[in-house]
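As a warm-up, study this chain.
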Amino acid sequence: MLVLLAGIFVVHIATVIMLFVSTIANVWVVSSSNSGTISTGLWLLCNKTCFQLSVKSGDETSLKVVQAFMILSIIFSVVALVLFIIQLFTLEKGKRFYMTGAVMLVCWMCILIAVSIYTARFTGKTQYVTNPHHGYCFILAWICFCFSFIIGILYLVLRKK
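Now compare it with the structure written out below.
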């Protein structure tokens, strides 16, 4: 049981780190143009230098929503980690980690909303570029989506022994 708790804890920390990286780094979509490789993220458009990401006025709200939900997912994931540590020392034997699991599933839902909106609104809609494909931040966000769901369910099922 101790090994399972340690494993979940390590995966949870890895999820928090990957959420930070996927939100901060600007490699959600990578493409080529006449001036070289271009990468776009949630905040900047980078070629040789980085510029503020400019989107159409109709997509600006969607981008702000994606940014907000990715930040919320980081917050909920960190809160769930702190809650887990607190419950690990204060929870009675035989009780379940319901609060930690619920907060982690809220994190999962935030990631789902953010990445789904990004996929629907911004994938394949770049102009003046060729061969656009998803960057590592987009893939990390989907990996965090899977990990946070698995961790959330495990926290709900897990009992303290």
